[in-house]
Amino acid sequence: MEPTRVRELTGVREVAAASGGDAMVGWAAQGLRGGVRAWALDGAVAVASPGLNRRDRLTVCGGAPEAAELVRRVLPELGPSYRLLGERPLVTEVVRRLPGAEILGTFEWMETAGSVPPPPAPDGAVGWLAPGADGEVTRLLAEASPSAWAVPGLPGIRRWAGLRDAAGTLVATAADAWSAPAVGFVAGVATAPALRGRGLGEAVCRFVFGALAAEHGRVALMVDTGNAGAIRVYERLGMRIRPVAAATPA
């Protein structure tokens, strides 16, 4: 029997239809701009996104046998820099079917699961920062989140939000980074260590979530599995967890 042909998807509506509207796949597609490509095979979808969230990513969904076969067929067109991304059980099974593939890490994808609280009424304390605030954001991240994936100046980071104290010092921040047309993406969330536990990070996230939900419809982010405090905040803001994994495909 002749093997099923891989179908390249050339429009965002095709990607959404083939993936059942999967938010992670929709985010990875990035509007099919910037060299992003997508394919489908027997219900599985793979999206190759160069430089997405600082990595060349091959995001997959669908059944494990079909996804593994799709990855096997498209890899020759991509090169060795691409890493698999997808729900943890799926990536685990895909890796098992690909000789030489290996799990690199596990973490949590979180996405909105219903209505997002609106941003707070403007009061001057929280809002989008001017481009000239990049230095302040850099200093806050260096102190509060030195391993943050989003930092000022990276391609794909559109803008930063922040909250200032009474003296005007930036004490909490979050970025609109690597957002896609139908999925707003949040990164670089940080609060000054001395002020944690006061709801400042939650206030900034509430503002950013509301703004991105109004613009994109859905909101998503990634968080370390062990960051229970942040996960609780994001759940209060209407997000649900999808455990994910990253892997080398070969």
Structure description:
29% of the residues lie in helices and 34% in strands. By secondary structure, it is α+β, with helices and mostly antiparallel strands. The chain has two domains: 7-99, no CATH class; 126-242, Gcn5-related N-acetyltransferase (GNAT) (Aminopeptidase, 3-Layer(aba) Sandwich). Strands 1-2-3-4-5-12-6-11-10-9-8-7 form a twelve-stranded mixed sheet, with helices on both faces. β8 and β9 form a beta hairpin. The protein is elongated, with a radius of gyration of 19 Å. It starts with 6 loop residues before the first strand and ends with a strand. Residues 93-250 form the N-acetyltransferase domain. InterPro entries: Acyl_CoA_acyltransferase, GNAT_dom.
Task: Itemize the secondary structure elements and their pairings.
Elements (H helix, E strand, L loop, with lengths): L6 E3 L2 H8 L3 H7 L7 E5 L2 E9 L2 E7 L2 H11 L7 E6 H10 L4 E11 L13 E3 L5 H11 L12 E8 L5 E8 L5 E9 L8 H17 L1 E6 L4 H9 L2 E10 L2
Parallel strand pairs: 4-5, 10-11
Antiparallel strand pairs: 1-2, 2-3, 3-4, 5-12, 6-11, 6-12, 7-8, 8-9, 9-10
Helix pairs in contact: 3-4
Low-confidence stretches: none
Enter the CATH topology name of the largest domain. Answer: Aminopeptidase
Strand arrangement in the largest pleated sheet: 1-2-3-4-5-12-6-11-10-9-8-7
Arithmetic mean of pLDDT: 93
Structural class: alpha+beta
Characteristic key phrases:
250 residues; alpha+beta; Aminopeptidase; 2 domains; twelve-stranded mixed beta sheet; elongated; Acyl_CoA_acyltransferase; GNAT_dom
